[in-house]
Specification:
Aspartate Aminotransferase, domain 2; homodimer; globular; PyrdxlP-dep_de-COase (chains A, B); Pyridoxal-P_BS (chains A, B); PyrdxlP-dep_Trfase (chains A, B); lyase (chains A, B); 7-stranded mixed beta sheet; 11% strand; Aspartate Aminotransferase, domain 1; alpha/beta
Chain lengths: 572, 572
């Protein structure tokens, strides 16, 4: 008997919507298909209500109980995984913070003094998943990271079972070498020669970008490590108006100061304008400041725009500046023969941020900072703490990576990506990227045809980002202007709120520059099909239309003074 | 039939030592106890050699194959978990980097262009665990983080299945609230009032310490965020000679400069001397510098020493300095009624680092920075990027934590700790800590009695660290002095190398100040029993003694010029 095989009648039971069911108070017998069966063939779940943590390993004879407990847990988790991919499941079952805080039907977040039994823990596990968000659902379009790669998930389960640290070779021999292999491969794909390239996996793209600024500063002013910024002239960084805010944040953290980040203008497609960069550099020099670093973005967060890397690299070369390419989001396109042309020039970067947890679908977190100049990471970060990094060990201690990082101890973020690479091959990642971009094109084509939607920019998407407004009937014939903008600004938040309450899809929105709130749809989940894209548009249109006729929305009055929507009522 | 139940004859088969077996090329049938059985009762493993990633979810009708694949994986993982706790298992099966890099018996780290089949992936998973280190083994004493908490592991499996980000409430409602509950509880345990306290979970203790310096600087000089360090006077930090190197690293990263960290002298027990701190502060002021931050350590890395927090807090108060307590290692003792007295005064700290992944046994990583002043984290780090953090959402957006962190997106490190807390209760953590410290006392008592070992300091351990030398027979009657030191310095590395090759236990060593290489044993694994402590001492003594009589070690010659050990041979 296959323990993971749920009877069809039970697995296909759709998740109950909105309301909270008493069911969540006990594991349903359907989660326990490997339990003893009664004569009428119903399952009796194994009862863990008298079993406690103390009965599990390392307790003597704890093996069986531990295995039984994991069996139940795995049933719950795999049931969740299967549900995540089913379109009949909800993406989320939304509750406000105060509702969850107060405890829902016995799901209490409070921490006890005394142990609770394992039955309660299993119920808590089910509730934790129930009230969360299925980021792997084919209709979750909310973040750059989405999808649930099952091989990546298998990799994470192994990683946590191994429970070690990317600190020294002696405690992580296999993972340290996998990191080396992965980084080398990524450097090769970026286009660096065999003599070039170093790097490290980091806790997220912001940290990777922070590394790049840190390394650039050290490269030009190595004395900063010991003497600090007071020994240095006023340093200036450049990044585009559409770039990620982490460049500014890095400047603040590193003691450079966010005001010393010059924000370079973009064209209407969200790409940095090289001439603007050059004139900003010259202006900064004229003011007696010292430009040292330019961040170019390959795949901006909102528009998915690619900065013109070669033109920017030319400018960096002529002024002797460090070129960083933030390809956190766009790096995945390097895997696609069809799309990698959009990152032409990336090989000229001095450092690259690339997050496989975004476009390549690796589970969170998986982000690399790649550095062209070998040895710089170590020189910049090492503190030679011999009480932590002994040099008289019997193996090649250059594999002890702890001292070349900021973090010292690091989570193992490499195994899942390594295993996924084995499972898909480089070509599999390429196909996955192509598919996501095809979904974006499909959405773009649909939007062009519909009168109830408006594109934020008319050109074909370069990445998988598609930005658009839903235009309610009442606004369709209104002339452009501040009043229309004021009203349009309120549409996306209201639709998103309704969508989250219904729970059948999820998408993000934001304002940007002079553009009022618009939806940004992104595709990074290979589970998403064109039918899901179509569903999303219908859902938005239907929610927007319904609101118009419901109490939440009144027809626009002549005076233009009444808000488009009434303010939220308590339950909204 | 219980799918996780391995037949006793197979589960108890001890791991073959040293040599690499062809067995690792295929999953052994013992991993597949749920597979069909032949008439002679041997199991036939399900064959995945024609099944690929493309056959798994989200493939249509991929549910069954996905479940089958996870079944095999879980068998491998739980077999590893059980082995980790068995004393008959090896802690590690050591290979040098070049050996693993070259590929062992088909375990190739290289990344393919084409997909590999799932059978190969399962073999790779088994090999990854085989060549790794069992950090949960009762005889792994190498790191401050050890043990394999099975409830924590369950929490990690769920976390990776949920695959979300501590970024906004909308994508992590449950985890965001669990973080709040955990932080509040930890602040309460530290001793802060209900009006005080903020914090965030970070990727490791070094990052937590970096946060503390960042916040202190911002607290006194908020203009640093925009203007950078050049707007500030020369800032000085203070930390003890035995503190973690992350304080210096933070100063380097943040642009303060590592030379501006004043290293305060410790007594021979490794505790900061308050009078030395005070005079260092006065000296710095006299030199026109601006002291602003003191790091006190509660549980140093090597000695496990606790700085006198109240005396240091008095000095900080009188000089108006930020007091940070690095309780990454010692924080766990707050859970024990018996031992929490060692952290008396911690409630006076302005910020506290506390790593539940160390003494509380949470899986890696789990580290908190606690901050007394509410709102400071947000003020210091927020960049108000409205394209990421919309303020017009329909829920209370103060729960969107992304903007108060450095990292923006963050891994979910809270669920495992939350689940462990439910499983053990606060009292369970207390008992666990007590047990680890009892093991340390047991080791201390044993060492006092033995002529072949020497304690680094004679007083009873305060934490679970016990530091000692093994004294080979040839050194026992040698007078103290440089020559004895030179020889003694080589003993621990040689013994550790042999120990790693044999693989039955693992312990760290390091020099510190004027002390030559000594062993540091630490206890944070509740699976460790006194018999394991006894085993460790016998193992060290036996390896030390054997080496003396083997080719690796020659008797000391009169001239004192010949090294104690021959240099490593190729295979060593």
């Amino acid at each position: 008997m296959d323990y993971l095989q749920l009877p069809e009648s039970i697995t296909e039971k759709s998740t109950p919507g909105g309301q909270i069911l008493a069911e969540s108070k006990q594991r349903s017998s359907s989660d326990n298909i490997n339990s003893p069966q009664t004569s009428d063939n119903t399952c009796i779940p194994k009862d863990f209500s008298c079993i406690y943590n103390k009965d599990l390993l390392p307790a003597l004879s704890g093996e069986d109980t531990t295995k039984d407990f994991f069996q139940e847990l795995v049933n719950i988790l795999l049931s969740y995984v299967c549900k995540s991919f089913r379109r009949s499941s909800k993406v989320l079952d939304f509750h406000h913070p105060h509702q969850l805080r107060e405890g829902l039907e016995g799901f209490s977040l409070e921490l006890p003094d005394q142990p609770e039994n394992l039955e309660q823990l299993l119920v808590d596990c089910r509730d934790t998943l129930k009230y969360g968000v299925k980021t792997g659902h084919p209709r979750f379009f909310n973040q750059l990271s989405s999808g649930l790669d099952v091989i990546g998930l298998a990799g994470e389960w192994l990683t946590s079972t191994a429970n070690t640290n990317m600190f020294t070779y002696e405690v992580s021999p296999v993972f340290i070498l996998m990191e080396e292999v992965l980084l080398r491969k990524m450097q090769e794909i970026v286009g660096w020669s065999e003599e070039e390239g170093d790097g490290v996996f980091c806790p997220g793209g912001t940290m990777s970008n922070l590394y790049s600024v840190l390394l650039a500063r050290y490269h030009f002013f190595p004395e900063v490590k010991t003497k600090g910024m007071t020994a240095l002239p006023r340093l200036i960084l450049f990044t585009s108006a559409h770039s990620h805010y982490s460049v500014k944040k890095s400047a603040a953290v590193l003691g450079i100061g966010s005001e010393n980040v010059v924000v370079v203008k973009c064209n209407d497609r969200g790409k940095m304008i090289p001439a603007e960069l050059e004139s900003s550099i010259i202006t900064a020099k004229d003011q007696g400041c010292v430009p040292f670093y330019v961040n170019a973005t390959a795949g901006t967060t909102v528009y998915g725009a690619f900065d013109p890397l070669n033109a920017i690299a030319d400018i960096c070369e002529s002024h002797g500046l460090w070129l960083h390419v933030d390809a956190a989001w766009g790096g995945g396109l390097l895997m696609s023969k069809r799309h990698r042309v959009k990152l032409q020039g990336i090989e000229r970067a001095w450092s690259v941020t690339w997050n496989p947890h975004k476009m390549m679908g690796a589970p969170l977190q998986c982000s690399a900072i790649l550095v062209k100049k070998r040895g710089l990471l170590k020189d910049c970060n090492q503190m030679c703490a011999e009480y932590l990094f002994q040099t008289d060990k019997h193996y090649d201690t250059s594999y002890d990576t702890g001292d070349k990082t900021i973090q010292c101890g690091r989570h193992v973020d490499v195994f899942k990506l390594w295993l996924m690479w084995k499972a898909k091959g480089s070509e599999g990642f390429g196909s996955q990227v192509n598919k996501c971009l095809e979904n974006a094109e499909h959405l773009f084509d649909k939007l062009k045809q519909r009168p109830d939607f408006e594109l934020v920019f008319k050109s074909k998407p370069e990445h998988s980002n598609v930005c658009f407004w839903y235009i309610p009937p009442s606004l369709r014939n209104m002339p452009p202007g501040p009043e229309r903008n004021r009203r349009l600004h309120e549409v996306a938040p209201k639709i998103k709120a309704k969508m989250m309450e219904q729970g059948m899809a999820m998408i993000g929105y934001q304002p940007l520059g002079d553009k009022v709130n618009f939806f940004r749809c992104v595709f990074s989940n290979p589970a998403t099909q064109t039918e899901d894209v179509d569903y999303l548009l219908e859902e938005i249109a239907s929610l927007g239309h319904d609101m118009q006729n419901a109490s939440g929305l009144r027809p626009i009055c002549e005076s233009g003074l009444r808000p488009l929507y009434e303010s939220d009522c308590g339950s909204d």
